[in-house]
Design a protein that fits this description.
By secondary structure, the protein is α/β, with parallel strands linked by helices. About 45% of the residues lie in helices and about 10% in strands. It has a six-stranded mixed beta sheet, with helices on both faces.
Length: about 290
């Protein structure tokens, strides 16, 4: 007989299933009718009073249109009792974003490229608020800018919790970030916000676990045909790398080895043509001085 998951797991799973059902535009009655009389009591499952079997959760995911394997596995790992609920296991965080957070939390190396803005992982709170205001909170599955900012800050805290700023730090993942120099010229907020963001980048670039580089505006040697993306590598040799393309509406998780390798090749080409560590500091300080002079 299957052992029922503990209450926190049942509640988190129920909330996730309710959010997916509502996103699919289905009522509880429609779900029960589609799955067959007596197959499931939706209200009991969604409130955590009953724990649907993993096979039933799979049927629900099919019904709700959750087809991406990483997202399905993220929900099923709760249903199978394989993990404890995390802060992203709430209907306020869409399942595609929760899956990305969970994958990133386990990564040993995070590679990120952004040609538009400072990567969210490196944004100050004020800069994040301006960037989200310009792009819209729906890019993080939220209805308000403040809710989206809280997600950005929670993600940063998760990634950098083991870093610290001291020389002996280094227990968190290695973060290797590349962004376009044009990002430093793009004005999305008042000058003080940009100055504070540049100060933060300079500080982050000094940390042993962070490698920050810029694609120069003058004669860039390589420009990939892509928008921003992230690559995650894991300490376990058997666990393959995963790519995440940050598209217009949502993050697209990429697990097909050939496609992931294409993103790795793009990042590798970028990494050998960007600024060195010293050149990065020079450019950051140059742009900081430009903004400070007004």
């Amino acid at each position: 007989a299957r052992t029922a998951p503990p209450e926190p797991v049942r509640v988190a799973l129920g909330e996730r299933l309710r959010g997916l059902r509502e996103a699919a535009g289905l009522t509880a009655e429609q779900v029960e009718s589609a799955l067959g009389r007596g197959a499931i009591r939706v209200e009991a499952a969604e409130t955590g009073r009953a724990a649907p079997a993993p096979a039933m959760v799979e049927r629900l995911l099919d019904l709700y249109g959750v087809t991406a394997l990483p997202a399905r596995e993220h929900v099923l790992s709760l249903a199978r009792g394989e993990r404890e609920p995390a802060w992203w296991d709430t209907s306020a965080v869409p399942v595609w974003l929760a899956t990305a957070f969970a994958l990133e939390q386990r990564a040993s190396v995070i590679r990120v490229y952004d040609p538009r803005t400072v990567p969210p992982l490196l944004q100050t709170e004020a800069y994040a608020r301006a960037a989200i205001g310009a792009a819209g909170p729906a890019t993080l599955g939220q209805t308000s800018v403040e809710a989206a900012v809280r997600l950005v800050l929670a993600r940063q805290e998760m990634v950098f919790a083991g870093h610290g700023a001291g020389q002996g730090a280094g227990h968190g993942p290695v973060v290797w970030a590349i962004m376009d120099e044009g990002v430093l010229l793009r004005s999305i907020a008042e000058p003080p916000v940009h100055l504070a963001q540049l100060d933060s980048l300079i500080d982050l670039a000094k940390r042993p676990g962070v490698s920050l580089h810029l694609v120069p505006l003058n004669d860039p040697a390589y420009l990939p045909r892509t928008g921003p993306f992230t690559l995650w590598r894991y300490a376990e040799a058997f666990e393959p790398d995963i790519a995440c393309a940050h598209t217009v509406e949502r993050d697209e998780l990429i697990i097909e080895p050939g496609a992931v390798e294409a993103y790795h090749q793009a990042f590798a080409k970028l990494s050998v043509t960007t600024t060195t560590r010293e050149e990065t500091f020079d450019l950051l300080n140059t742009h900081r001085d430009r903004i400070a002079r007004g």
